[in-house]
Amino acid sequence: MAFKTVVFYGSYRRDRNGVRAAQFILDQLTQRNHEVVFADALEYDFGLLDRMYKEYDPGQAPPKMEELAEHIRTADGFVVVAGEYNHSIQPGLSNLMDHFLEEYYFRPAGIICYSVGGFGGVRAAMQLRVFLSEMGMPTISSIFAISRITDALDADGKPQKESLTRHVGSFLDEFEWYEEALRHQRQEKGTPF
Length: 193
Hints:
Elements: E1 4-9, H1 19-31, E2 35-40, H2 41-44, H3 63-73, E3 77-85, E4 88-89, H4 91-98, E5 109-114, H5 122-134, E6 139-146, H6 149-152, H7 162-189
Parallel strand pairs: 1-2, 1-3, 3-5, 5-6
Antiparallel strand pairs: 3-4
């Protein structure tokens, strides 16, 4: 069963180490036959939130915003790749994702967090659970944390340890279970609102 998955990444920094994690998960999802959309805050670059997508009249949103809204609406789930900024979420990530709301409803989210140090960005992941839930995305129970990202993944996102690929497999097994279950519910029973 093929899934459509949007991968969100929110760093605007000049030296974006986290893009390694994004490349890694994009590759893993592609190997599992997902239709993958990479929602990179730097590429979409909507600027600071002024108007949400829903605040535009139909057909009047900027083209790139309309494009991403359509990807979100038609996705089975979302993987959010996040570094930790001051024990919290990257500002570029929250700004990108805040442009949308209803489009996310009743689709699961998996969290991949990273850091150059030993904690793997887990403090950001804890903040993300609340953030994503408030936006209508139940998060899967597993978190995939990547510590010492510059040692764990090369510049192209290739794993430097076999254990990374093995562990991401069980993370994605759980994520796909939720994608399938919630897609079935949406198709068979609709949504509560």
